[in-house]
Write a structure and sequence with these properties.
By secondary structure, the protein is of the alpha/beta class. The protein folds into 2 domains: 228 residues, Phosphoenolpyruvate-binding domains (TIM Barrel); 49 residues, no CATH class. Helices cover 48% and strands 16% of the residues. It has an 8-stranded parallel β-sheet with strand order 7-6-5-4-3-2-1-8. The longest helix has 20 residues. The protein starts with a strand and ends with a helix. The relative contact order is 0.10.
Length: 287
């Protein structure tokens, strides 16, 4: 899931193009991009899409961002979008374990009602100082939680923190990544609103990639190719990973715990990372 493209639920004319596009995942939105007067229409449009064959045959990871738990739209959103083929329910503005548990309960009820046999996971948006402080607790609140996603606009703006301040970005992104790692879930990067600023988008995506994030959110189709490129293992990384795994197999046969590859001491954590790189490369058809 190198790239995740947001698609407003109130813009069904964009659905087919998004399904044919290059984004690994599509996040159909019922929250911020949909005005209150269009919520019901957007919910119905998204229900129709997810109930049809085009979405299920797209080969993409399908995600639906619902309105926050406690809003008047939450229950109806969940009932509408939890359909066969939906991979993740994106829950915004999560600040309490009660939010996670209520979402998991609503998911289970919707699965039973709609004949969903493959469990839908939860992607939690961390968009406040409290949410960030409790990120590990939220991520470990229920087995349905698959990942944490940053919402930097909602996090920074009320605190008057500059959205593009490098020190703030690094601090918050690392904090979230460590919380996700402790909980055993993935971390996913925030959207970048300046969609014409390719250099800025790539720089932020590269930071996320170096910090171990799974991929980056995109608000415009033009950002997708850049996210895909940044989160693709390079040929050099793949080649190095192959050498590490080969050396690990040889070392295991000889009963060695640590050894060198390309002039660097290598042990179990490096081998685990190398195997992850090779698994990603295979999934992307890179060898």
């Amino acid at each position: 899931m190198r790239s995740k493209l947001f698609v407003p639920g109130s813009r069904p004319e964009l659905f087919d193009k998004a399904l044919r596009g290059d984004a690994d995942a599509l996040s159909f939105d019922l929250e911020d991009s949909v005005s209150p007067s269009r919520k019901a229409d957007a919910r119905q449009a998204l229900q129709d899409l997810l109930s049809g064959p085009a979405a299920r045959s797209s080969g993409k990871t399908l995600i639906a961002r619902v309105n926050p738990r406690g809003s008047e739209h939450f229950e109806a959103d969940v009932r509408a979008v939890v359909r066969p083929g939906l991979a993740l329910l994106n829950l915004p503005k999560v600040e309490a374990t009660e939010d996670v548990l209520a979402a998991a309960e609503a998911l289970e009820a919707a699965e039973r009602a709609n004949g969903v046999t493959e469990p839908v996971g939860l992607l939690l948006n961390i968009e406040s100082a409290r949410g960030l402080r409790l990120a590990y607790t939220l991520a470990s609140a229920h087995p349905r939680v698959a990942g944490l996603q940053l919402g930097l606009g909602d996090l920074f703006e009320p605190l008057q923190i500059a959205r593009h301040e490098p020190a703030a970005l690094h601090t918050v992104m690392l904090q979230l990544r460590l919380a996700a790692g402790e909980a055993g879930v993935f971390a996913y990067d925030a959207a970048y609103a300046r969609f014409q600023d390719v250099e800025g988008f790539r720089a932020e995506a590269c930071l996320a990639q170096r910090l171990g994030y799974l991929g980056k959110s995109c608000i415009h189709p033009s950002q997708v190719s850049h996210a895909n490129a940044v989160f693709r293992p390079s040929d050099d990384e793949i080649a190095h990973a192959r050498r590490v795994v080969a050396a690990a197999d040889e070392a295991d046969a000889r009963g060695l715990g640590a050894y060198t590859v390309d002039g660097q001491m290598v042990d179990a954590p490096f081998v685990q990372r190398a195997r992850t790189v090779l698994a990603t490369a295979r999934r992307l058809g890179l060898g």
